[in-house]
Write a structure and sequence with these properties.
The structure is a single chain. The protein is an all-alpha fold. It is built from four helices and no strands. The two termini are 15 Å apart.
Length: 122
């Protein structure tokens, strides 16, 4: 459930970033590429899409019982959630809440996968 939710949060983050880029394009037209940070937005959109795909892949790993790699995908989700949160603190509240959700679910999922991998009761 956490991985599916993480994929949904990444997808929602993509939607918000693309909406932001659309507003920049509408405001600046042909000069939109000169706006600081617009190139970074495209990179983050591609990164979020890749991470959403990795979360979906991790769901299959967890279903098979392979917690070793799923654990590292959770860790990546937590670390990138932290980076995106720090980057987006001046942005919209919705974007901040999405990244808090990614950070929290990444950490919580990593703890659960680690315990499951070690055979501890969850």
């Amino acid at each position: 459930m956490l991985l599916g939710g993480g994929a949904a949060l990444y997808a929602f983050g993509i939607f918000l970033m693309y909406s932001e880029l659309s507003q920049i394009r509408a405001a600046y037209g042909a000069y939109a590429s000169q706006v600081p940070g617009s190139g970074l937005q495209w990179f983050l959109i591609v990164l979020d899409a890749a991470l959403a795909g990795l979360n979906i892949y991790a769901v299959t790993l967890v279903a098979k019982g392979d917690f070793k790699y799923a654990k590292w995908l959770f860790l990546a989700m937590g670390v990138l959630g932290t980076i995106f949160l720090l980057r987006g603190l001046s942005g919209p509240v919705t974007y901040i809440l999405i990244n808090i959700g990614l950070l929290g679910s990444g950490v919580y999922g990593w703890i659960l996968a680690s315990r499951e991998e070690k055979g501890l009761q969850v």
